[in-house]
Amino acid sequence: MKHLEKQIPMNPVPLIYFGLQSFRLQFLQLLLTAFVLVVFGAFSSIFTRSALAFSWEDVFRSEPPVPSNDGGSRGDRDTFCPIAPIPPLDASGNAISSAIVYSDRPLLLWQGATERIELWQRGGDRPLWTHSISEADRVKETAALTDQITYQVTAPTPLQPDQRYEWRIYPPGLDYSIARFRTVSLEERDRIRQELDGIIAGQTAPAATIRRADYFAGQQMWSDFWQTLLTGQPPSQELVALNGNTIAALCPLVSASSILSIPNPTRPPEATHPFNAEANQTIELSLDSPEAPTQFTLLDPQGTTIATGTAQPNRPISQQFTLPLQGQYKVRLQAAETPSQNQYTLTVTSRFNVQ
Predict the structure, then answer these.
(1) What is the pTM of this model?
(2) By CB count within 10 A, which of 19, 36, 86, 149 is most buried?
């Protein structure tokens, strides 16, 4: 027996009505989604621009310069710290070859009080050039932001290709320091010039400067890297901050790695690391204590405690502070537990912010 289904005719008006309502709802949802994306994108763009001001990775494709593995601490503004030329270094800070420069009038960049510098050809019996250091040799962009003075000097005349030279830097009352380098050969210069032409072709002037500097960073040719950034067009505030933070990482106010051993179980061991700073200077303090807790105390020139904190095992800390006074500050480290023997690494660097 067949069941007959009764076909009920349907009114098309309600279907059209609900179809329009569904279309309107989807359209409003699309508008709302677009609005949220635009607003979020605007804020995201703002935050991204803020991050770009301080992040090496967002500006350059190459790795940043690595601090030399000398184990020293800068605490004194007169301590010599070479920035360029420096030899290419591995990830541990050990030299893998001599410094190489592309420019025939290379840049010398350093921190530390200096009376004069000399340029020598290796094996020569007299300097090719002697220059007395003055305020005119300071890197102007960072001059007012930190107590650690950065100087730059450029060779006055072109140097010969494929030759070995050295800068001699004379601090007041001390023996000189040496920064050695080799100029590229004519063949190397032609190859580098062709590679640079291909990299910066079609770029605007600011972008070409960044790409050119990035190329030299990739080759660890730091004299040419800094010469590109410091002798071209006036940099943006963001680039000034990035340059300052990169130099500060190479020449920290404090760089110490040691052990807090405990001769007396009833008293936690201590260590003190001094450094000089300007009023309103911003610093970043980083402390790593992988074996046992280590507490730090930051003291101002009057001996007043500014801040304290504790680095836990495998939980390093990094904090920024704006220092209120000019003078010598101290970071006092103390084992947070008794008895203990703490291996620690402490770094204090200047931080540059966009004004």
Answers:
(1) 0.75
(2) 86
Mean pLDDT by 10 residues, the chain (355 residues): 42 44 48 40 31 67 78 52 90 83 96 94 95 90 58 95 96 90 97 96 90 96 95 76 87 89 66 91 93 93 96 93 94 80 89 70
* Confidence at residue 262, expressed as pLDDT on a 0 to 100 scale: 63
Three-state SS for the chain is: CCCCCCCCCCCHHHHHHHHHHHHHHHHHHHHHHHHHHHHHHHHHHHHHHHHHCCCCCCCCCCCCCCCCCCCCCCCCCCCCEEEECCCCECCCCCECCCCEECCCCCEEEEECCCCEEEEEECCCCCCCEEEECCHHHECHHHHCCCCCCEEEEECCCCCCCCCEEEEEEECCCCCCEEEEEEECCHHHHHHHHHHHHHHHCCCCHHHHHHHHHHHHHHCCCHHHHHHHHHCCCCCCHHHHHHHHHHHHHHCCCEEEEEEECCCCCCCCCEEEEEEEECCCCEEEEEEECCCCCEEEEEECCCCCEEEEEEEECCECEEEEEECCCCEEEEEEEEECCCCCCEEEEEEEEEECCCC
Contacts of 146 (CB under 8 A, 6+ apart): 244, 248, 277, 278, 281, 350, 352
What's the number of CA atoms in the CB half-sphere (13 Å) around residue 170?
Answer: 10
